[in-house]
Request: fold
Amino acid sequence: MFGGSIGNFEEGGNRTTSKMTDDAYVLDIPDIKNMKWYPIQIAGERPKARESSALFYDSQDSKLILFGGWANNWLGETYSLRVSMITGPPYAIYNITPNMGTLTGKTKVLIDGDGFKDSNNIMVRFDPGGKGTAPEVQGTYISEK
Reply:
């Protein structure tokens, strides 16, 4: 989230008691009961305080793109903010087949996703559900998907 208005005002009423903000926040949702807003520190040129701007997420480059908005006139500039340190890795996992294996392990799995990169150091970590350490095995790159 970027910017907005701060203050108390009624719909359609006088907005002279409100002010624009240039604050940036991310909402972390580990689960529905533990949501929390965290401020984002912006380095470099900070966009002017505004409201009603468009905000897009570029998953290829892990960037937020901010366009326009209102600050006593309509704005037309564009800003980008790299958020890879917040959003996680540049890949996404959609499915793992099979989704369950034997108790002894040693079951090959296919990880289906997007944005995988060819590397000699692909490690896959299996979470035992809080029952000890998560074992890692060497993975094999097949494709970016």
Remarks:
- DSSP finds one helix and ten strands in the chain.
